[in-house]
């Protein structure tokens, strides 16, 4: 692994300590973390601010993610408007078991949409006068193995720009340029594509449950989540080749009602405001750091959403990288920075395994042998407290 040198310098153009590529949650969480410790950064984003703020993604925050948001000064509205949840329901046909996280491990999670996290981060950056270049094109990384890397791009007015820095943080997602800039990054990379997808809907209807429901039904998996006391988020297992055009609102509500049906319970239905089909896959890059470039969040790893780990694992990356950068810039100590990949990957593979386990246990298969194994596993978890404790620790994010 290339070592981080103790000295850093600039070559010209705009100058900052850290160039952050990507203005989504991971990029702006890192920006606010660094600012808290007196470290300067400039952010480059290829989409518009409106687009970034409107992306519908994660909605469940681990305890440690909530702590991080509070630490960097963007936790106030979360605690005012978010929904604290103390557990989940696991369901197999008519059988339904509540896993009480507070009782099992003494921790909780929070339901608070990524769009709201993004708005809070944007507001904090506005208040601080943070420099962010939106709608940047032709983003390219240079000299990442040197002590003075740089990022070049064309701004939204068509002007060529360049930022000289000491470190580059790639927070630009799977399709961004950062990971591609690492030589040989495909070596040692892992990818698993699951044989099913999720049809996700957002609906202007009050949730029909007090906690999230994870239901395994012979027709396929279904999930009931929420974004507020007036907005529900729901999912259905579908075939990867399916087309959203095949799913009318009525068909969606009928399928959700059938797959989550239990005696005495009824699903609230209403206006569906958004629906889409999401592919299910896991990915871990062969390298999360190279020279002065570090990959954060989806730029380096992706998990299926079953375990609610995407945004939360990115937040873990932010803390690990942030800690390393604080030691590097403020104490001239590169030890933690050099260990970023080691520390991050330990957590990445833990959440990758948990997401795979939850996904494999809850989704129906075309292979009946696999289905029987899944049913056996789910019944075991629903009856065994030790397994429930293990699930709760992984779900809440206790490391």
Outline the structure in words.
- The chain is an alpha/beta fold and 399 residues long.
- The protein folds into 2 domains: 14-78 and 113-190 and 282-354, FAD/NAD(P)-binding domain (3-Layer(bba) Sandwich), CATH 3.50.50; 85-108 and 194-279 and 365-396, D-Amino Acid Oxidase, Chain A, domain 2 (2-Layer Sandwich), CATH 3.30.9.
- The protein is 36% helix and 26% strand.
- It has helices at 25-36, 49-54, 63-71, 76-81, 101-104, 114-128, 177-180, 249-259, 310-331, 335-338, 340-362, 368-383, 385-396; strands spanning 14-15, 18-21, 41-44, 60-61, 83-85, 87-92, 95-100, 109-111, 132-133, 137-142, 150-154, 160-164, 167-170, 190-204, 212-216, 222-226, 232-238, 271-284, 289-290, 293-295, 301-302.
- The strands form 4 sheets. The chain has an 8-stranded mixed beta sheet, sandwiched between helices. A 6-stranded mixed beta sheet has the order 9-3-2-13-20-19. The chain has a 4-stranded mixed beta sheet with strand order 1-12-11-10, with no helix packed on it.
- β11 (150-154) and β12 form a beta hairpin.
């Amino acid at each position: 692994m290339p070592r981080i040198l103790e000295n850093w310098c600039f070559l010209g153009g705009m100058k900052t300590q850290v160039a952050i590529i990507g203005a989504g949650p991971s990029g702006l969480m890192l920006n606010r973390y660094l600012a808290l410790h007196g470290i300067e950064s400039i952010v480059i984003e290829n989409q518009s601010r409106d687009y970034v703020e409107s992306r519908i993604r994660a909605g469940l925050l681990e305890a440690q993610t909530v702590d991080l948001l509070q630490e960097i000064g963007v936790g106030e509205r979360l605690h005012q408007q978010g929904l604290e949840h103390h557990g989940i329901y696991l369901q197999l046909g008519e059988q339904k078991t509540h896993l009480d996280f507070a009782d099992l491990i003494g921790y909780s999670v929070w339901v608070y949409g990524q769009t709201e996290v993004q708005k809070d981060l944007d507001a904090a950056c506005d208040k601080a006068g943070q420099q962010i270049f939106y709608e940047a094109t032709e983003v390219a990384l240079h000299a990442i193995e040197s002590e003075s890397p740089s990022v070049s791009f064309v701004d939204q007015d068509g002007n060529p720009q360049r930022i000289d820095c000491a470190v580059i943080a790639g927070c630009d997602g799977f399709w961004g340029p950062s990971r591609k800039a690492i030589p040989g990054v495909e070596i040692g990379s892992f990818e698993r594509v699951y044989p099913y997808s999720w049809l996700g809907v957002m609906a202007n209807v009050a949730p029909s449950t007090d906690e999230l429901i994870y239901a395994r039904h012979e027709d396929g998996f279904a999930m009931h989540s929420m974004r507020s006391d007036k907005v529900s988020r729901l999912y259905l297992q579908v075939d990867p080749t399916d087309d959203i055009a095949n799913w009318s609102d009525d068909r969606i509500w009928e399928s959700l009602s059938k797959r989550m049906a239990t005696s005495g319970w009824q699903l609230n239905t209403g206006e569906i405001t958004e629906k889409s089909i999401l592919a299910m896959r896991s990915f871990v890059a062969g390298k999360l750091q190279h020279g002065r470039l570090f990959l954060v969040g989806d730029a380096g790893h992706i998990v299926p959403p079953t375990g609610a780990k995407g945004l939360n694992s990115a937040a873990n990356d932010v803390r690990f990288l942030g800690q390393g950068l604080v030691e590097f810039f403020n104490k001239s100590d590169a030890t933690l920075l050099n260990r970023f990949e080691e520390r991050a990957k330990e957590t990445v593979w833990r959440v990758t395994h948990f997401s795979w386990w939850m996904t494999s246990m809850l989704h129906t298969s075309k292979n009946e042998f696999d289905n029987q194994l899944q049913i056996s596993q789910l019944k075991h978890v629903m009856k065994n407290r030790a397994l429930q404790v293990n699930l709760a620790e992984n779900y809440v994010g206790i490391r």
